[in-house]
Amino acid sequence: MADNATSPLAALAGILNTVGFDSIPASHVAFSGADPVLPSNLLIGTAGAATIGACGLAAADLWELRTGRRQQVGIDVRAAAIAMRSSRYTREVGGKASGGMADISGFYECRDGRWVQLHCNFPHHRDGTLKILECEGTKEAIAAALRKWDAANLENTLVAADLCCTMTRGNAEWESSAHATAVDALPLLEITKIADSDPQPLPDGDRPLSGIRALDLTRVLAGPTCGRTLAEHGADVMRISGPHLPFHKALVMDTGHGKLAAHVDLRDEAGIESLCNLIRGADIFTQGYRPGTLAKRGFSPDDLAALRPGIVYVSLCAYGREGPWRDRRGYDTLVQNATGICDEEGGGGPPRHMPVSLLDYASGYLMAFGAMTALGRRAREGGSYHVQLSLCQTAHWLKGLGRVAASENARGLPDPSAEDVSDLLMESDTPFGRLVHLAPMVQLSETAPHWARSVVPLGTHDPVWPD
Fold first, then answer.
1. Domain containing 208: what range?
2. DSSP H or E run through 231
3. pLDDT above 60 for 1
4. Domain assignment present for 396
5. pLDDT score at 2
6. What is the mean pLDDT of the chain?
7. Which helix (H) or strand (E) holds 285?
8. pLDDT tens, residue by residue, 95-145
9. Which CA distances in Å does 280 have to 213, 214, 268, 283, 305?
10. Under a CB-based contact definition with an 8 Å cutoff, are residues 234 and 446 in contact?
11. Which pLDDT score, from 0 to 100, does residue 4 have?
């Protein structure tokens, strides 16, 4: 790696220092392997290993709280890099994986020679974009329509319509923007005590999160990855979705391991009361709405701390809680494009995404780390907590880790197929059929991570906690 590249150990230490986690030192994690793993000069394996390793340390800390015993934690950099693209390896036995990207989503060149990325994966985003462009839903028709637009004008027009688009920016252009300055003032993640309550010892059980209940009100990848991670350490996780909301089956299969799944409709009073009842019995509440959205429905962090003293409330958004872009819709690929990553990955040619959804997956692991860290604080000193982070903060952190040496030509590395990573895969019987998917990647010497429940379709269970 290049001289300015951060090691996995140093990256992990930085995460721990950010939130004041000092129960177990970063040096307790045994790292193996090194970047580059995938065709990118960004330190994908290092970032993955650091975030997954942080989850392993937090789980080990909770186990030590339960038992007084400190278990070993290990993570392989290659395995961690592959975990940053787990949806690519999730498939029905004998079938092919599906990434969930719509055909018309992607990069387009505008009239002024600048590029934009459209994100039309959900039907309402697709239909709204096509209405503004006044064209048919083919890549060819969209490309022709965009030759009538300047990139910045298109971005502003679509954003004003609550749709999804970013103009491709280089690193220097992004870093000089007002929003980048606002994000730079934020840490990678924050854990804030928002109310006092008595200490709550961990429930009895033989896993780090045994007896812990987590409500997962997130969508797509980052938030659901958090819930999947909590489940692999023993939590009862319930994925809550609206029966009217679109979703990607492939991503449900990727992130649904270990979870219950229920429908709750927050458009009516019965749904709101149902969610309140679930919150009263929960320990963790994760949500991925834009800042302030759930507060309008009475589900702000302060509301939940009053309803359920000792709650750990985890908030993820696209662009952070501060800055002029704080209320924008965004997804991993859009944030990559806005923050200079796609321009850099293009290497002087057209923009290109990273070969992973790292902002999603790494943020999901950071959410789980923050939630477990807050649970440890609740057990030791009491209180309700708010964990906050964003895809944009994760992007800034990733870029700050350094790069692979240019002489290694990492962009020319082969892209691993499912056969290339067969040692990291497992199979599960599910209502979707028998699935092939990645196994949990962190290694714990006493409580090997695993999922006690198989993936199920959204809305499979009633919205009540099991006995």
1. 8-99+181-323+353-444
2. helix 222-232
3. no
4. yes
5. 53
6. 94
7. strand 284-287
8. 877 666 668 889 999 999 999 999 888 888 889 999 999 999 899 999 999
9. 10, 11, 19, 8, 10
10. no
11. 79
According to the per-residue pLDDT averaged within each range, which of 58-67, 88-97, 116-125, 215-224 is highest? 58-67
Name the residue type at position 430.
T
Burial class (CB in 10 A: 0-12, 13-18, 19+), 244: exposed
Nearest to 289 by CA among 339, 247, 329: 329
359, two tokens:
């902002």
pLDDT of residue 270: 93
Within a domain: residue 372? yes
Kindly state the tokens that stand for 21: 């986690």
Amino acid in position 233: H
- List, as own/partner pairs, every contact residues 243-246 make where C-beta atoms lie below 8 angstroms and the sequence separation is at least 24, other chains included: 243/459, 245/219, 246/122, 246/123, 246/124
Cα 251 to Cα 452: distance, rounded to the nearest angstrom:
19
Select from 246, 240, 242, 247 the least CA-distant residue to 217: 240
Burial class (CB in 10 A: 0-12, 13-18, 19+), 270: exposed
Q: Is 149 among the domain residues?
A: no
What's the average model confidence in pLDDT over 283-307? Answer: 91
Query: Given pLDDT bands bounded at 50, 70 and 90, which one contains residue 402?
Result: very high
Contacts with 374 (C-beta within 8 Å, 6 or more apart), sequence order: 191, 312, 385, 387
Contact yes or no for 224/52 (Cβ under 8 A): no
Whether 162 is covered by a domain: the verdict is no
We report the CATH number of the domain holding residue 299 as 3.40.50.10540
d(CA 71, CA 131): 56
What pLDDT is recorded for position 201? 95
DSSP state, residue 326: T
Using the structure block, give the residue that is written with the tokens 């000193």: 381
H or E element, residue 166? strand 165-167
- How crowded is residue 282: how many other Cβ atoms within 10 Å of its Cβ? 22
In total, how many domains does the chain have? Answer: 1
Which band of pLDDT confidence, cut at 50, 70 and 90, is reported for residue 3? low
Q: Give the H or E element holding residue 59.
A: helix 44-67
| Token reading at 142 | 């969209």
E strands in 227-282: 236-241, 259-263
Find, among 173, 109, 31, the residue nearest to 351 by Cα: 109
| Radius of gyration in angstroms for the set of CA atoms belonging to the chain, rounded to a whole number | 21
What CA dihedral angle connects 48, 50, 51 and 53, to 10 degrees?
Answer: 110
Provide the pairing of β-strand 106-109 with 115-118: antiparallel
Which residue matches tokens 């812990």?
212
The DSSP H or E segment spanning 367 is helix 358-381
Residue 379 has pLDDT above 70, yes or no: yes
